[in-house]
Amino acid sequence: xxxxxxxxxxxxxxxxxxxxxxxxxxxxxxxxxxxxxxxxxxxxxxxxxxxxxxxxxxxxxxxxxxxxxxxxxxxxxxxxxxxxxxxxxxxxxxxxxxxxxxxxxxxxxxxxxxxxxxxxxxxxxxxxxxxxxxxxxxxxxxxxxxxxxxxxxxxxxxxxxxxxxxxxxxxxxxxxxxxxxxxxxxxxxxxxxxxxxxxxxxxxxxxxxxxxxxxxxxxxxxxxxxxxxxxxxxxxxxxxxxxxxxxxxxxxxxxxxxxxxxxxxxxxxxxxxxxxxxxxxxxxxxxxxxxxxxxxxxxxxxxxxxxxxxxxxxxxxxxxxxxxxxxxxxxxxxxxxxxxxxxxxxxxxxxxxxxxxxxxxxxxxxxxxxxxxxxxxx
Length: 378
Ligand code: GMT
Description:
Bound molecules: ligand GMT
CATH class of the largest domain: Alpha Beta
CATH architecture of the largest domain: 3-Layer(aba) Sandwich
Number of domains: 2
Largest sheet: 7 strands, parallel
CATH superfamily of the largest domain: Glycogen Phosphorylase B
Radius of gyration: 21 Å
Shape: elongated
Distance between the termini: 14 Å
Number of helices: 13
């Protein structure tokens, strides 16, 4: 099929999911066109069947805010017409679902029928989408999509609670490409470059926005450090990174934290990890937790949003109420202080991650595309 994918090209989870999805679809023989303002960070354009179309903005001094949605809609119309796309799959409702609705109407006037799939990822519903400034337009564009998916049961429920939705919502979980985490990587993992053998390694990966509660990450590590010699890897960049540095200095543990910045080689970093920390305020799914589990790392997380659908209490790690730093630290220590127990949690985490293998999830998206294509005016 011919599919357009619209997403944020940055390090956010929705962009990562969209990019991995597009690459996997192209690998299966579909023709995939990415439409966004920059080349997505994980997009490898070398593969055949993949195309990238950049949305360009005409800056004008009159505008305090440049009208990106207009440029995006225009680009969608251009690409759908030129390459005869059948499906536009937009990731993150704001402003993508709204821009897709406009593009669809313009194309309709030109006698072209394109079907729009909207995947809701999290804060496009919870923190941002339901804000009074956006709610009306977000609700409208969800209701006018041809198909709507959420990345967890929890996000589906929140969507139905926060908006007046008159569409079916399919839940399609985030997925993982397990081949990227081969056994060999573990054998070759030069752990000694990060920590001596008597120390453990904890990791947190995020875009350091307030919703990730990165101060809690540092606080949990501080408590763990009191009992278990260890290092903390902090991967990613964002508004709360500086506060995390300050907190680490206050606790006197700055030297035990490695700040690694953004990375596209997460599997290589995760191979060092004994325990992954994700104490988020809310998390519609928690892709980072799944990536850690695929690399055999158990997860200490909060129990908010969709995290209980990914992290299984007492099996793949532990879940605690948001902000329960002491409890999170206690659970991390429980896993780390016994070698055999830690190995068991690592095995469980890896085994559970297979449930989300891309081979299991991709057909669900393809089924939606096929169903919609059958309804298209051709
Ligand atoms: O909602 C966000 O924070 C943005 C979004 C992104 O683009 O980074 O992240 C969300 O989408 C991911 C992929 O579906 C999920 O795994 C994350 O849990 C989710 N983040 C939140 O809900 C905070």
